[in-house]
Design goal:
InterPro entries: NAD(P)-bd_dom_sf, RCK_N, Trk_Ktr_HKT_K-transport. By secondary structure, the chain is an alpha/beta fold. The chain has four helices and five strands, in the order E-H-E-H-E-H-E-H-E. The N and C termini lie far apart (36 Å).
Length: 102
């Protein structure tokens, strides 16, 4: 069993998080939208509401203790890049990022 952190729980992030749970992994899901977090809190290991653009928050979440991070912020390309860079600087070994730019 591996431990994953999914940052951004929109359609893609939610689907990834629930699929990882179905495969027997532990998942911490993080989003800034309270409704989304509440909808997933009983479907994944843990769901929290937080602003992942703050390095302090990522540190408090213990991101470097996870086997991998999935960055699924969506259409905000700049934020996706920022969070991915912070994760890399924090020493996370595996980072998967999905981004869109319209």
């Amino acid at each position: 069993m591996k431990q994953f952190i999914v940052l951004g729980l929109g359609r893609f992030g939610s689907a990834v998080a629930t699929t990882l749970i179905e495969l027997g992994h532990e998942v911490l899901g993080v989003d800034n939208d309270e409704e989304i977090v509440n909808a997933l809190k009983d479907k994944i290991t843990q769901a929290v509401q937080a602003d992942i653009t703050e390095e302090r928050v990522l540190t408090e979440l213990g991101v470097k203790n996870f086997d991998a991070a999935i960055v699924s912020i969506g259409t905000d390309l700049e934020t996706s890049i920022l969070v991915t860079m912070m994760l890399k600087e924090m020493g996370l070994k595996y980072i998967i990022a999905k981004a869109q730019n319209n």
